[in-house]
Design a protein that fits this description.
Blueprint lengths: L6 H7 L5 H32 L5 H51 L9 H14 L1 H5 L3 H20 L1 H25 L1 H23 L1 H6 L3 H53 L5 H14 L6 H22 L21 E9 L6 E10 L4 E5 L6 H8 L7 E6 L2 E2 L5 H7 E4 L10 H6 L7 H10 L3 H6 L17 H15 L3 E5 L7 H14 L4 E5 L11 E6 L2 E4 L1
Parallel strand pairs: 3-8, 3-9, 6-7, 7-8
Antiparallel strand pairs: 1-2, 1-4, 4-5, 9-10
Length: 556
């Protein structure tokens, strides 16, 4: 997608491979509407002509036409819906894939600007809203133009003044009222999608923190916030619904006035002898049926206004800047041992903000085991983020085997430098599935090997379902120590050359913490290790302990 264009036009570019389907939808929609108009016109001819008691042969063609138009209308409408919806769903699937791939590139540092609930709303609700571009924004207006033009031509052919009145009515109902509806709902349309995202974010926070809210008696405050967000969204929806209802009423009024105008002109022409009752019936019913082509356009205009705002929110994710710069020609990764070095490393998350790292030097030669300690905010996790290529340096250098780390593709770097974050995510799946994320082709023997290293195998084998035991959402069925050990096993199974463990004992009691440190040091023997911890205890077996304060090395 190209930045700077109208967001709906940018989404429309995705429809290029499916333009054949969209053209089919337009043709089928025009055919369905035209069949409906012609069906009523031919029915009027049939009834008026039958009142003259002609022979059966005189009306047999009209009888056949009524049957053919009835079938054609249903078939054409089905083809129009099938083609437009199929194209829309294929494009929306492509958009969701693009958003997810973009989120992969942005995570984790680039997602700070988006709340998790709001991101979910963009991925689901906003993408769903843009389907109106392909279902209501392309085929119906073009089909209405084609069918309406045909009805006007037929009206002019029968009685020119009546055809002109019909053309004026269709223009007002098909252009004037949709423009009015779009302008009247512009403000609400701009706020509906953000309000929906705010509601999703508020509700997600409520559900994620329900235990803490209950513990501190803050349920009513949280529910009030959700209620306020819902009321805000409802007020915007109510305005849209009011305008949509008013537009529908105006469309019906325009249709009625146009029909009266056509009828009066037709009756006058019939009285003057310029028109007979059979063409009068055809003209009147053609005018009545032709408004089927434009009756849905005001609601479509309202929906397209919302779709534009949703598309803009989608584009904001797709256009979010990369947190790290990818090289145009990535350097191939070294096959042998890995050595990492930081010299004068500086990081600022905002140009005017404080330095998260300020001139840090750190060496991680092959096999070296280093601990980073210090208070919260000292810069420990920032070093891990730099080494994993989640964050670029503002100044200084970081090298991998003597070459700039930024010269390697980020995904390649993470294949050699891996680890376990401070709050590892445990998926709502089985123990086996959570480990296989690190190495999908791992055998049961390899799973058992890493489970032994983190002292989980005896416990797993004691479970009735063994490796197939579900762990619950975010590992709710596991204890804190079991969750940390499972995450450590996953990191070991990935087998990176450099292993970074960020606060692996967070949220654990002192006894469990010391036991886990002892086990992970044994499990990572001989491997390059960077252990990030705020607790300096139990680190006697490491080669170096680096103490950070305010982004600087305070002691080593």
């Amino acid at each position: 997608m190209t930045a700077g264009r109208d967001p709906l036009l940018r989404l429309l570019r995705l429809a290029r491979p499916l333009r054949g389907q969209l053209l089919l939808a337009v043709a089928a929609g025009a055919a369905a509407t035209s069949c409906g108009v012609a069906l009523l016109a031919v029915s009027g001819f049939l009834l008026a002509r039958a009142s003259e008691h002609p022979g059966i042969l005189a009306i047999s063609a009209a009888v056949v036409a009524v049957r053919a138009l009835s079938a054609g209308r249903g078939i054409s409408r089905y083809l129009e819906r099938l083609a437009s919806h199929d194209a829309a769903f294929r494009i929306l699937a492509d958009v969701r894939v693009r958003i997810y791939r973009r989120l992969e590139r942005l995570a984790p540092a680039g997602l700070a600007a988006f709340a998790s609930g709001d991101l979910l709303a963009r991925l689901v609700s906003d993408v769903d809203a843009t389907q109106d571009l392909f279902i209501r924004g392309i085929a119906p207006p073009l089909a209405a133009a084609l069918a309406g033009a045909g009805a006007v031509v037929a009206g002019v052919a029968i009685l020119a003044p009546a055809g002109a009145v019909l053309a004026a009515g269709l223009l007002v109902a098909g252009i004037g009222i949709p423009v009015f509806a779009a302008r009247a709902t512009r403000g609400a349309a701009r706020r509906i999608a953000p309000s929906r995202g705010h509601l999703a974010g508020t509700f997600t926070d409520l559900m994620a923190g329900v235990a803490d809210l209950h513990a501190y008696g803050a349920e009513e405050t949280a529910l009030a916030a959700v209620t306020a967000a819902d009321a805000d969204l409802t007020s915007h929806d109510r305005r849209n619904a009011t305008v949509s209802g008013l537009s529908a009423g105006l469309s019906s009024a325009i249709a009625g006035l146009t029909l009266w105008g056509v009828l009066l002109l037709g009756v006058a022409a019939t009285g003057d002898g310029a028109l007979t009752r059979v063409p009068l019936a055809v003209l009147t019913l053609t005018a009545l049926a032709s408004f089927e082509a434009v009756i849905a356009l005001p609601a479509a205009a309202v929906q397209l206004g919302q779709a534009r705002v949703s598309a803009r929110r989608i584009v904001a994710v797709l256009d979010a800047p990369d947190p790290v710069r990818e090289p145009s020609s990535p350097r191939p990764l070294p096959a042998g041992p890995v050595s990492v070095r930081l010299r004068g490393a500086k990081v600022r998350y905002r140009p005017e903000g404080p330095a998260a790292l300020d001139g840090v030097d750190l060496d991680l030669p092959p096999g070296r085991r280093v601990a980073l300690t210090g208070p919260n905010g000292a810069g420990k996790s920032t070093i891990a983020s730099v080494l994993l290529r989640f964050t670029d340096l503002t100044a200084g250098t970081v090298t991998l085997n003597g070459h700039d780390l930024a010269g390697y593709a980020a995904d390649d770097v993470r294949a050699r430098i891996g680890g376990c974050p401070q709050d590892p995510h445990i998926f709502d799946a089985s123990l086996r599935d959570n480990l296989l994320l690190a190495r999908p082709g791992a055998t049961d023997e390899q799973l058992a090997e890493v489970a032994v290293q983190v002292r989980l195998l005896d416990w797993i084998e004691s479970l009735p379902l063994g490796w197939d035991t579900p762990v619950g959402a975010r590992g709710a069925a596991l204890s804190g120590g079991q969750r940390q050990r499972l995450a450590l096993a996953r990191a070991l199974l990935a087998d990176p050359a450099v292993l970074i463990l960020d606060e692996p004992t967070a949220h654990l009691d002192q006894g469990t913490s010391r036991a886990l440190i002892t086990d992970l040091l044994a499990a990572t023997a001989g491997r390059t290790l960077l252990l990030i911890t705020h607790d300096p205890g139990g680190l006697d077996e490491l080669d170096q302990i680096v103490v950070l304060e305010d982004g600087k090395v305070a002691a080593s």
